[in-house]
């Protein structure tokens, strides 16, 4: 079995990557050591220093799935997820709007989920911000 990296190579990789743990450092090391980017990432991973980049949305937020949004809605409404799981087929923007509306109703001091007498449906009573 051949040795792909000398101890000096490994020490250099760990030192450089620890100082600046980003893709540019990996690319620089790959060029400097005449190795592929995947090889550098693999070695840094085996050394326990590589940090996988976390996907972010265009706005810089951590992505959330439609399933997670529907689960949050079910939790807020205190109903079984399976009863509303079909909402996952709706556009994400619509589900998000619904979740945000319910979330804001709760955080703004929702007093009751009960419908006023003689009315049907879901009612959220909110108090005005003081």
Distance between the first and last residues' Cα: 72 Å
Radius of gyration: 25 Å
Large-scale geometry: rod-shaped
Give the DSSP E fraction (strand runs of 2 or more residues). Answer: under 5%
Average pLDDT rating: 84
Number of helix segments?
6
- Helix and strand run: HHHHHH
Could you say how many structural domains there are in total?
2
Helical amount:
40-55%
Helix/strand structural class: mainly alpha
The count of DSSP E runs of length 2 or more, i.e. the number of strands, is 0
Largest sheet: none
Low-pLDDT regions: none
Salient structural properties:
51% helix, mainly alpha, rod-shaped, 130 residues, 2 domains, 6 helices
Provide an overview of this structure.
By secondary structure, the protein is mainly α. The chain folds into two domains: 7-46; 59-130, no CATH class. 51% of the residues lie in helices and 0% in strands. It has six helices and no strands. Helix 1 packs antiparallel against helix 2 (23-33), helix 2 (23-33) packs across helix 3 and helix 4 packs parallel to helix 6 (92-107). It is rod-shaped. The mean pLDDT is 84.
């Amino acid at each position: 079995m051949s040795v792909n990296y000398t101890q000096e190579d490994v020490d250099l990789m760990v030192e450089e990557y620890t100082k600046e743990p980003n893709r540019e450092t990996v690319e620089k090391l790959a060029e400097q050591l005449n190795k592929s980017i995947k090889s550098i990432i693999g070695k840094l991973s085996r050394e326990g220093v590589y940090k996988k980049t976390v996907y972010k949305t265009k706005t810089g937020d951590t992505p959330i799935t439609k399933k997670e949004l529907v689960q949050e809605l079910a939790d807020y409404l205190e109903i079984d997820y399976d009863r509303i799981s079909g909402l996952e087929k709706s556009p994400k923007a619509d589900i998000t709007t619904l979740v945000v509306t319910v979330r804001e109703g709760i955080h703004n001091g929702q007093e009751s989920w009960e419908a006023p007498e003689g009315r049907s449906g879901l009612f959220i009573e909110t108090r005005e911000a003081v």
